[in-house]
Design a protein that fits this description.
Helix content is about 35%, strand content about 25%. It is of the alpha+beta class and about 350 residues long. It has two domains: about 120 residues, Creatine Amidinohydrolase, Chain A, domain 1, CATH 3.40.350; about 230 residues, Creatine Amidinohydrolase (Alpha-Beta Complex). Strands 4-3-2-1-5-6 form a six-stranded mixed β-sheet, with helices on both faces. Helix 5 links the parallel strand 5 and strand 6.
Length: about 350
């Protein structure tokens, strides 16, 4: 089933039609990305509205939509109201998460239909990926793995976190990425104890851990991975913590399969870290789903009560963070199947001592 057909299947339930205002839902429905626009999905027709900058690309790329231009004579509100009238729409399902209060008030005032929240129904469609979506995510992950292998050849004492981030971004794009799935986290030494540390002018030194958390976009779909490497040498404590994190990830992956609640997967990894005496130093969840966005649902964290569906794509990223000393995170991306998961991250996970 094509994605637009899944969207149409929601119509007549929470609302007569859907008003897609986020780039993610528009990309999902059209199976192609146009930066600007608004889409209407209904059982009586589907329309996509955008301005002259994007109209030619929209007409070529967007399948299943009637594409109409927005200009001085035809505003978004007018185009939407025309569709409301033509398709007999009384209620419009909106994406509450992606609308500002100002936009919501304007739509509520100007549109000739009642607005109802359809966010959960729309988002849930993306929990399970189609095979063609998985292929794009695997390609994005291949680019990320290749970039990591190249970074291993250039990391050295004396470069800064910002310099390493610049090299990372350059290689992602040179290797075929369409963009970044998020701003890379590149931290070293004591800064690795901050899970979402911001790259700084800190100079990499012999004996540092270096953590790189990064991903790219390929045809709209995200990759994500984290690797922590040691620069020139590693202490016994660094080796011990790294081994615990690696085992926690392995145990989380072993507990992962479709039908298992996300909290169970998280618990398998969290138990490993807690039993080793580091439970207080693992504060974030074990994993999050990803796809068109870097953070989607369902999630493998302590509050993840939803069973993971077949072809959910989720990160596996336990960590230990010792304030003022160092931190370790190892992250792969896995595809949930009936009897386990497929790990699509191919970069080595043993402790690498480089330089």
């Amino acid at each position: 089933m094509r994605n637009i057909e899944k969207m149409i299947s929601l119509c007549g339930k929470a609302a007569d039609a859907l008003l897609l205002t986020s780039v993610y839902s528009r990309h999902y429905a059209a199976e192609s990305g146009i930066d600007e626009g608004v889409a209407i999905i209904s059982k009586n027709g589907c329309r996509y509205f955008t301005d002259s900058r994007y109209i030619e690309a929209a007409e070529k790329q967007l399948k299943g939509f009637e594409v109409l231009v927005i200009d001085r004579e035809h505003s978004y509100y007018q185009r939407i109201n025309d569709a409301v009238s033509d398709f007999g729409i009384r209620t419009l399902g909106i994406e509450e998460r992606y609308l500002t209060l100002k936009d919501y008030r304007e739509y509520e005032k100007r549109l000739n239909a009642e607005l109802v929240d359809a966010q959960d129904d729309i988002s849930r469609l993306r929990w399970t990926k189609e095979d063609w979506e998985l292929e794009k995510m695997i390609r994005a992950q291949e680019i990320t793995d290749l970039t990591f292998s190249q970074l291993l050849e250039i990391i050295h004492p004396g470069m800064t976190e910002k310099e390493l981030r610049a090299e990372l971004i350059y290689r992602l794009l040179k290797n075929g990425a369409d963009g970044l799935s998020f701003q890379p986290i590149v931290v070293a030494g004591p800064n690795t104890s901050m899970p979402h540390g911001v790259p700084s002018d800190y100079v990499l030194q012999k004996g540092d851990f270096v953590t790189m958390d990064f991903g790219c976009l390929y045809d709209g779909y995200c990759s994500d991975m984290t690797r922590t490497v040691a620069l020139c040498e590693a202490t016994a404590e660094m080796r011990e913590v790294y081994a615990i994190v690696a085992q926690a990830q392995a145990n989380g992956i072993a507990a992962s399969k479709a039908g298992v609640e996300g909290s169970v997967v998280d618990g398998a990894a969290r138990k490993t870290i807690a039993e080793a005496g580091y439970g207080a130093y693992f504060g974030h969840g074990y994993g999050h789903s990803l796809g068109l966005e870097i953070h989607e649902s369902p999630n493998c964290n302590p509050s993840g009560k939803d069973p993971m569906p077949v072809h959910a794509v989720c990160s596996a990223e336990p960590g230990i963070y010792l304030p003022g000393k160092f931190g370790v995170r190892i992250e792969d991306v896995v595809i949930f199947e009936e009897n386990g998961v497929i790990d699509i991250t191919k970069s080595p996970k043993e402790l690498l001592i480089i330089g």
